[in-house]
Amino acid sequence: QVQLVESGGGLVQAGGSLRLSCAASGDTFSYYVMAWFRQAPGKEREFVAAIRWYGGTTYYADSVKGRFTISRDNAKNMVYLQMNSLKPEDAAVYYCAARRGAGNSYYSDYEYNYWGQGTQVTVSS
Q1: Do residues 13 and 34 make contact, with C-beta atoms less than 8 angstroms apart?
Q2: Over 90: is that where the pLDDT of 101 sits?
């Protein structure tokens, strides 16, 4: 059973940085796609970033491109989201997600089979 556990959320001032971590277990992740989504109160869950475990190709939402970086550590089965230049509109619960195989879209949450419990990111202005 695949399990994803996020950590690293917290309160940060606008312009600051946070690094989120996602610990993955329960399978061999070589052919997985790992992603981060977020959901703010009253809004739909939205795609943030994704990475193909094999090869490391990355994909980003336009709203975070140039500020956020997704990466993975093969040896530790960890996925990270480095968030810089944070804005108040980045505040949300951030979820780590995973699916096996390329699928049809990296950006749709229904393409992902496994989800973490989420970690809260709060950005003060």
Answers
A1: no
A2: no
